[in-house]
Amino acid sequence: MQCGVTEIDALSRIAAGLIVRVGYAMDRLLSLLPRTAPLQIQVPDIATTKIEPPRLEDIAIQKALNEVLEYYTVHQPKNTTKNYEPKQKEWKAWCKKMGFKEGGRYLPGDYVDEGKLLLFIKEEVTSRPPRRRRRLKAERKRKRTAAAEILSEGPPSKRKREKISVPSMAFEELPVESNDDKACSELVLIYNTVRSYYSAINKLWAHQTSLGLHNVVRPQRIAMTTLKTLIAQGQHQRQHDEFTDRRLATIRDGYVASQIPDLTRKV
């Protein structure tokens, strides 16, 4: 009996020693691990934050920019001002109608970026007829000349109407000039006019970036370049399909359509 008690005591002492050693080993392992400091959030004292006054070099740069831009605006060529100002006003009116606001993907207000300019050119410029100048006047002149020629020939006879229906339809649907000729015009803006719109809005972008209103890159990347290329290709294809005389309404246009028979007889 005494022998059994002695063995139990020995085992107990061994177990206690193992527990102590395991605890010591765990303490050593924990001491080797990196310790992280408690997270401390520093709240800035808004009341003590001071706004730094503008530096002298910043004031000098801004003054120089304002003076040079003012000089450019005053001494800009008159033809450039006459060509650009209406287009820039049209751009600003369109931006106001669209209502671009801050926080969106594109710039607010009338600030110029490629996406807004692309939409403006695509929907507001390329889809409308010319408003004035020689192409619209030439179209009206051609319509009046064609109407006068048909009227001078008189209404087609009954026999001719039975054989040919197209002239009779043309006689019945003579073009009448009115104040709404722009809406009835079959013309579209040519590539040079579209390019002048781009130049005018690009000049507005240059002023905005020089004044530091925004720092968007020039709106002349792949999307805008592709749109201008498509417009030029469409104009060329349209002139090819319609057999357009490229000298018409230009300084090289020396005759009208009604003079062609006289010219061919003299050749």
Radius of gyration: 41 Å
CATH architecture of the domain at 56-69 and 76-128 and 189-244: Orthogonal Bundle
Mean pLDDT: 75
Net shape:
elongated
- Helicity, in percent? 55-70%
Q: What is the CATH class of the domain at 56-69 and 76-128 and 189-244? A: Mainly Alpha
Q: How many helices?
A: 11
Q: Give me the strand/helix succession.
A: HHHHHHHHHHH
- CATH fold descriptor of the domain at 56-69 and 76-128 and 189-244: DNA polymerase, domain 1
**Proportion of residues in β-strands:** under 5%
Report the structural category.
mainly alpha
What topology does this entry show?
Elements: H1 2-32, H2 56-74, H3 78-98, H4 114-125, H5 134-153, H6 158-163, H7 166-172, H8 181-184, H9 191-210, H10 222-241, H11 260-266
Helix pairs in contact: 3-9
How does this model look, in words?
The radius of gyration is 41 Å and the shape is elongated. It contains eleven helices and no strands. Helix 3 crosses helix 9. The protein is mostly helical. Among the domains are: 56-69 and 76-128 and 189-244, DNA polymerase, domain 1; 131-187, no CATH class. Mean pLDDT is 75; it is low at 160-183. The chain has helices spanning 2-32, 56-74, 78-98, 114-125, 134-153, 158-163, 166-172, 181-184, 191-210, 222-241, 260-266.
Overview in brief:
This protein has 11 helices and no strands. It is mainly alpha-helical and 267 residues long. Among the domains are: 56-69 and 76-128 and 189-244, DNA polymerase, domain 1 (Orthogonal Bundle), CATH 1.10.150; 131-187, no CATH class.
